[in-house]
Amino acid sequence: MNKKIDSNDIAVATIDPKDVDRRIYDLYDEYCHSGMTRRDFLQKAGAMTIAGVSGLAMAQSLLPRYAQAQTISFTDERIKATYVDYPSPGGTSGEMRGYLVQPATEGPHPAVIVIHENRGLNPYIEDVARRFATQGFLALAPDGLSPVGGYPGNDDDGKVLQRSLDQTKLKQDMLNSARFVQSHELSTGKLGSVGFCWGGGATNFLAVTMGNDLHAGVPYYGSAPDAAEIGSIQAPLMVQAASDDERINAQWPDFEAALQSNSKTFTRNLYEGTKHGFHNNSTPRFDKEAAELSETRTMEFFKQHLS
Fold first, then answer.
1. What pLDDT is stored for residue 72 in this prediction?
2. 234-269 burial, b for 16+ CB within 10 Å, e for fewer?
3. Which domains does the chain have, with CATH numbers?
4. Residue ranges in the chain modelled with pLDDT below 50
5. Residue 267 bridge partners (DSSP)
6. For the packed helices 198-210 and 167-182, what is the interaxial angle rounded to 10 degrees?
7. pLDDT digit string (tens) for 227-240?
8. How many helices, marked H, and strands, marked E, lie in the chain?
9. pLDDT at 148
């Protein structure tokens, strides 16, 4: 008898990431970046059996495990973390909330905005903000969903909520968040932006919009800005890219050509054998070696340009 697949009935699958079939990875990417529900994702995967292995088991193995992904405790003595509210004129509601993490050492500190993926401020992004604070940065991770109740506790509902928002107003919330942390009393006024997936595209947006007010940008596998806007970029960029990421990599030739023709300062790191989302250590797309190398490069890049 076939068991009905319920979106909340997820068994922990023990499958090596390298054994997950490409078709399941592609289906997962579609699920993450479209209106596909978790139920539909699991049902479509469950219809496949690949080399004797259930597609459903492969699909289950790709879902995030946040409890296993924490690297810096919120009680770590090197940092002080709190949630802060601040105005966001022109944004979704006029108010925003973010996760502010400061080094325990006396400030001021260079500021970094850490921008989430397309599902709100989940535990992975909060952990990334704490990592930056341990390296001496004042880190703000805004929750783009805060005007509509905040990250709902799971990525599925978060994805739906974020897709429902006016994207122009959501980007304005990110811009206001960047300005908030840059002008914070604990900030030196130097600002860097790092973002992942949707947040990578938002980092590119900040680079275009903020001009000289942004001092460094690191987009991870983010959508490129329009070529006509690239002349406005003043911040040096470090583009972090996965080798197996057809959707984002297809944008790179035009992005690179526009950066070059406008004499912008940039570098691109392409991590071989990685997939979109390789930095996210809560899913099997995580590539430990590439993630650690990319994070080290990002920290050094910010220390170079924000000091």
1. 94
2. bbbbbbbbbebbeebeeebeebeebbeeeebebeee
3. 17-63 (no CATH), 73-306 (3.40.50.1820)
4. 1-13
5. 238
6. 70
7. 999 999 999 999 99
8. 10, 10
9. 95
